[in-house]
Amino acid sequence: MSFVPPTAPTELDNLPQPYLLFLGDVTEAGYAKTAFGLRDWAFDRCVGQWGCGSTIDTGLPTLTPVEAQAGGARGLVIGVASPGGAIPPRWVEALIEALEAGLDLVSGMHTRLSSIAPLADAARRLGRRLIDVRVPPDGLPVGTGRRRGGRRLLTVGTDCAVGKKYTALALAKALIERGDAVDFRASGQTGILIAGRGVPMDAVVADFAAGAAERLSPAAEPPHWDVVEGQGSLFHPAYAGVSLALLHGTQPDAFVVCHQPDRPHMLGYPDFALPEVVEVIELTTRLGQRTNPRIRCVGVAFDTSRLDADDAIARMRAESARLGLPVADPLRGGDAFAALVDAVRAVSP
């Protein structure tokens, strides 16, 4: 699958593409979501994968940096989004190997590449670039809460890594195909790498987060849709603040709840069960009404990647009947996803 963003020049047009995706030593697929996101939505910009002990397989060819560079790669992207966004010291030797092979480094981690002395020294010696995309723009304002033109949809989640980015991209693509005026608005590092623009919301100082969300989704003509990639979950013990700032700042007219039905607890937080979808709808509506009294849920997106087709369809049909809303897996598509797109388009300007 591929998403073609608007053609206007962006601040990230000069990224060193195509990429070798670095998986580090992660063993949980949920923490390799940057690699999977680029594989699924920017496949033509990825030449392979490489790790230093990772058990994750994106399905791309496994290549050393030397092999990837010979095959046309120009940059190595850290394909991991670990809690806290730190680059562990045990990865540094592998990252230097990529620099020595002739690749620039691209990172969406909180740790700045240039702050790691051995990387900075190697890059300087070799004439290579260290590029951080999880850097918010300068001059962000505080939020105003003022209404602005255009229609907005926000994907919200029961947890992290439950499909908010994929759902936003799939809905944006479907709306474009139906002839609507649409912008996908990236709020995290992977979305920014895919679309070439956006604001990394979890790197913004808290006082300016709602204002950053307002800037991310500016005023537009009434028929226009901004489809905004959500972050975290209002129920998350660590990241709820980012989710709330996005909700207040984007002032969505519509939202879609994203959920992985077979996940037993929050990723990396075994003491916290996932909230019920109904709870997410109720809380999102209540909090969202603060800046947009018209906010409403238009459907639910399930990540059924770990379920077989029959089980996935049965669960989605049952949930749709229970909620009275369309429930679909955007990557499975079909009539259920078409119904979800129809529900989005029914929202009045």
Describe what this molecule looks like in 3D.
- The protein is α/β, with parallel strands linked by helices.
- The chain contains eleven helices and eleven strands.
- It has helices at residues 33-41, 65-70, 92-100, 117-126, 164-177, 189-195, 209-216, 240-250, 277-288, 309-323, 334-345; strands spanning 19-22, 46-50, 75-78, 104-107, 130-132, 151-157, 182-185, 225-228, 254-259, 296-302, 327-328.
- The strands form two sheets. A six-stranded parallel beta sheet has the order 7-8-6-9-10-11, sandwiched between helices. Strands 2-1-3-4-5 form a five-stranded parallel beta sheet, with helices on both faces.
- Strand 3 (75-78), helix 3 (92-100) and strand 4 (104-107) form a beta-alpha-beta unit.
- The protein is globular, with a radius of gyration of 20 Å.
- The relative contact order is 0.12.
- The model is unreliable at 1-10 (pLDDT under 50).
Give a quick precis of the structure:
The protein has helices at 33-41, 65-70, 92-100, 117-126, 164-177, 189-195, 209-216, 240-250, 277-288, 309-323, 334-345, and strands at residues 19-22, 46-50, 75-78, 104-107, 130-132, 151-157, 182-185, 225-228, 254-259, 296-302, 327-328. It has eleven helices and eleven strands.
